[in-house]
Specification:
Layout lengths: L1 E2 L3 E10 L12 E8 L7 H16 L4 E3 L5 E15 L6 E14 L4 E14 L2 H10 L6 H20 L1 H13 L3 H9 L6 H35 L3 H9 L8 H11 L13 H20 L2 E8 L1
Helix pairs in contact: 1-2, 4-5, 4-6, 5-6, 5-9, 6-7, 6-8, 7-8
């Protein structure tokens, strides 16, 4: 028995942040993963299985990891092309043919950089089981997936190299508007593999980060003073110790720290590499920015 139900589904997606794989300076590029919420056609177990397959495909690539440092994402589209129930024996068997397509897209520009599609058949006691069986048969070692990711990486790196000046100018404009978080995040999204552009972006990012720190310094001093007013010295100290010593208001920070230091039980702060601290802080700003601004996106799944 053949079923042919055409349903257009608007699905909400969430970027999955695999923060456990921290980006190092020699990581070529990172991709976020976008997966659908459960629906009448695809349950959570099937979505989880497909997500695992996508993670494995990326892990098998050269120079790509799953992380959350830009707005490039990989997402699936599934088409259920045919589902037949074969009668016979003790129990009917349902055979379902699906097409699983993967896309790599830059959300801010709405540009698809690479795609790949595979047709797979699965079987089971019902349609749900047969779809699950088909997903489990995705071969994560298929060379076409390696090529799919390689094509994306090549095009993405070319995009950054070709548009380097424009990207930095955009970040600079955002900085003049005091949109420091977005400005820093755009600069931090440029991958290390784009050596020349990356170096220019890091230099500009540090410049903007210092301006941002001046703004944060004033805010954190206010938070610290409010905490001191209610004798919450621990929270006051936490607000003060994260302020960059090169911030213009740091002399006032030192006075406040001296004022409350005798009231806080805390180990003496160790000396550390300020440049390294700033670099890490800039990367964290970028991750936080993309986790807020690239939270949701919609696309259609066509189920046949």
């Amino acid at each position: 028995m053949k079923t042919a139900t055409r349903i257009a589904l608007i699905v909400t997606f969430f970027i999955l942040n695999y923060g456990s794989k921290a980006q190092s300076t020699n990581t070529t590029f990172t991709l976020g993963i976008v997966m659908p919420q459960p629906s009448n056609d695809f349950n959570q177990d099937q979505i989880t299985k497909l997500e695992t397959k996508i993670v494995q495909i990326i892990n098998n690539s050269d120079g790509m990891t799953v992380d959350y440092t830009n707005d490039f994402v990989i997402y699936p589209v599934i088409s259920v092309e045919e589902s037949n129930t074969v009668e016979g024996g003790m129990q009917n068997i349902t055979v379902t043919s699906i097409e699983v397509s993967l896309f790599i897209k830059q959300i801010s520009k709405n540009l698809v950089f690479s795609s790949v599609s595979k047709k797979i058949k699965g079987s089971g006691n019902n349609k749900t089981q047969s779809i699950s069986n088909a997903i489990s048969q995705i071969n994560v070692n298929d060379k076409s997936y390696v090529q799919f990711l390689l094509n994306a990486k090549t095009k993405i790196l070319k995009y950054y190299n070709d548009n380097c000046s424009s990207i930095i100018n955009t970040a600079n404009t955002l900085s003049t508007e005091q949109d420091y978080e977005q400005s820093i995040s755009i600069l931090q999204s440029i991958p290390y593999a784009c050596t020349s552009c990356y170096n220019k972006a890091q230099e500009k990012s540090l410049e903007i980060y210092k301006k941002y720190q001046t703004l944060l310094c004033t805010k954190n001093i206010t938070i610290a003073k409010d905490a001191i007013a209610i004798n919450n010295y621990d929270d006051a100290f936490k607000s003060l110790e994260i302020i960059d010593p090169n911030s213009t208001c740091y002399p006032e920070v030192k006075k406040l720290i001296a004022e409350i230091s005798s009231k806080v039980e805390r180990k003496e702060r160790q000396e550390f590499d300020l440049e390294k601290q700033r670099i890490n802080a800039e990367k964290e700003i970028a991750k936080a920015y993309y986790s807020r601004t690239v939270k949701l996106t919609n696309y259609n799944i066509l189920v046949l």
